[in-house]
Amino acid sequence: MKKILVANRGEIALRIMRSAKEMGILTVAVYSEADRSALHVRYADEAICIGPAPANQSYLVAEKIIEACKLTGADAIHPGYGFLSENAGFARMVKAAGITLIGPSPEAMEIMGNKLSAKAAALKNNIPMVPGTDEAIDDIMQAKLQAEEIGFPILIKAAAGGGGKGMRVVERADAFEEQMKMAISEALAAFGDGSVFMERYVSSPRHIEIQVLGDTQGNIVHLFERECSIQRRHQKVVEEAPSTVLTENVRKEMGECAVRIARAVSYVGAGTVEFILDENLDFFFLEMNTRLQVEHPVTEMITGLDLVKEQIKIARGEALSFSQADLKINGHAIELRIYAEDPQHNFMPDIGVLKTYRTPKGNGVRVDDGFDKGMEIPIYYDPMIAKLITHGENRSEAIAKMRRAIEEYDITGIQTTLMFGSFVMQHPAFITGNFNTHFVNRYYTTETPETPETQESEADIALIAAIVALKNLNKKNEISIPVAVPAAQNNWFKNRKKYN
Ligand code: MV4
Questions:
Q1: What is the tens place of the pLDDT at every residue in 214-242?
Q2: Residue-level pLDDT at 458
Q3: Where are the beta strands (DSSP E) in 216-301?
Q4: Under a CB-based contact definition with an 8 Å cutoff, are residues 346 and 396 in contact?
Q5: What contacts 120, CB < 8 A, 6 or more positions away?
Q6: From the CA atom positions of the chain, what is the Rg in Å?
Q7: Which of 76, 95, 333, 384 is the residue whose CA sits 20 to 30 A from 246?
Q8: What is the CA(119)–ligand 1 centre distance, in A?
Q9: What is the edge-to-edge ordering of all strands in the sheet holding 46-51?
Q10: What are 152-207's pLDDT values in tens digits?
């Protein structure tokens, strides 16, 4: 492998090229007309423009990517995440063109790309799953009887969905028929596939995923878990490793399950097995992502591995140079995703020019980004502009580093989720590790109460408590007991200077 074409943009394109460069491999960037002056274009050894700004005319066009390989003599493609990274058809085209795709087989992508076939593979391998149906629903009245057996509330999911798309909670039997009809027509409209199935609804889960690596010799290991429960509308915001709740025993069981699922599809490369974990620490398989994930750096920090280098070595046919027994968790890592979104206005995407842009530095701080001062954030793509990752000896050190790094980060010209990250890092529920996937909805509100008379909800009180904790912390540089203050004194959000 002499030259890798990176079929992506932004932070992940740069991150991949850095590892390739360290391995003495040349890099090719592809870019749309909106990304002419992007950092990944400047960083690569060569760059090819593949079309207009909209992704479906550039980054998503398989033929253009393959053509760019031929033009530049690239012998491998790294797809990153998103775009074509989990597209089995693209994987087949790449193979047919005699190019190495740094990723799993098209067959593995196809099986895991459909939730019903993924569940069928898991079922054969004794993997714990939420009670539910294992085939597409075709008879609604029969499905209703099954739903009563499973027990309400139930969750309807689209087989072709994923990442929360096409899900519907049904609270009671009398709403079943209507909800089911809507779920089927929605799935058909969104995915061109009306197959839906149902599961018992686990109401307050944690989202925990296991990183796996498989080589072409059939060795498969797991690289422990990532806790990804801090999310809003299925978009992760904070991830960490290890999880505060897993016991050594549950970690081992989850890891073994993840390896078994990967083995079921002869998995090659880096992949992630998603689980939900309930209050009793029972875990259930959800789906497998057949790509390198956004949050992979937290795993890199705690294992000392470079996952992109491992992917490249695997794609070259090399055997993994370590076994499961060689791997151990070193310290604690946290990632904060920085989106060009306004956390005070319902996380509306924000566009504009980065008037100032200074990243935090120093011991235990890593920034994976793809923009620089003076650059414009294009509207066409994902609004994530950077990932801030900290690594400490333990969780409280990683949190302290994250708070310090957020404070150092200087972004003006656009609204970002930096201050939302600060909110999370100060929140008692986060600090104690006592949270689930409802964290953001439960605790975060942007409605700043105006008068002391305002009746405060539980969420408001929690927010204010966290704000007070933040203020005290910044003053004294030590953790204080949060106390709620009257709403009128709560002007924290109005006093944002540095981050505007
Ligand atoms: C669930 C669930 C509760 N019960 N399945 C969301 C994304 C997709 N991977 C599956 N998801 C869920 N499946 C059952 N049976 C709750 C979720 C869920 C969720 C999962 C992980 C992370 C965030 C989430 C937010 C809402 C719902």
A1: 999 999 999 999 999 999 999 999 999 99
A2: 55
A3: 220-232, 235-241, 269-277, 283-289
A4: no
A5: 134
A6: 23
A7: 384
A8: 15
A9: 46-51, 26-32, 3-6, 76-78, 100-101
A10: 999 999 999 876 777 999 999 999 999 999 999 999 999 999 999 999 999 999 99
Give me the phi and psi of 309, to 5 degrees please: -60, -40
16 phi/psi in degrees, rounded to 5: -70, -45
Whole-angstrom distance, CA of residue 28 vs CA of residue 62 = 16
Nearest to 274 by CA among 305, 307, 239: 239
Distance 118 CA to ligand 1 centre (A): 16
* Residue 165 pLDDT: 78
Q: Which residues of 58-85 are buried (b: 16+ CB within 10 A; e: fewer)?
A: bbbbbebbbebbeebebbbbbbbbbbbb
Q: What is the pTM of this model?
A: 0.89
DSSP-H helix ranges across 330-453: 395-408, 418-426, 428-432, 439-443
- Closest residue by Cα to atom 17, ligand 1, is 164
Ligand 1 centroid vs 233 CA: distance in angstroms? 10
Q: If DSSP codes are grouped into helix, strand and coil, which group holds residue 226?
A: strand
Dihedral Cα 24, 93, 14, 400, nearest 10 deg: -110
250-301 pLDDT per residue, tens: 999 999 999 999 999 999 999 999 999 999 999 999 999 999 999 999 999 9
In tens, the pLDDT along 304-355 reads: 999 999 999 999 999 999 999 999 999 999 999 999 999 999 999 998 999 9
Query: Would you call 161 exposed, middle or buried from its count of C-beta atoms within 10 A (0-12, 13-18, 19+)?
Result: buried
Which residues are the active-site residues?
291
Report yes or no: 370 and 39 within 8 Å, Cβ to Cβ. yes
Atom of ligand 1 nearest to the CA of 130: 15
Which residue, among 463, 384, 382, has the nearest Cα to 422 in the 3D structure?
A: 463
Distance between CA atoms of residues 483 and 256, nearest Å: 43
Q: What distance in angstroms lies between residue 234's CA and the mean position of ligand 1's atoms?
A: 8
Residue nearest to atom 16 of ligand 1 (CA): 202
Q: Which residues pair with 12 in a beta bridge?
A: none
Question: Which residues lie with the beta carbon below 6 Å from any ligand 1 atom?
Answer: 130, 155, 163-164, 199-202, 205, 207, 231, 234, 274, 276, 286-287, 437
**457 φψ region: left (φ > 0), alpha (ψ -120 to 50), beta (else):** beta
- Mean pLDDT, the chain, rounded, equals 90
All structural domains of the chain: 3-102 (3.40.50.20), 131-200 (3.30.1490.20), 206-443 (3.30.470.20), 458-499 (no CATH)
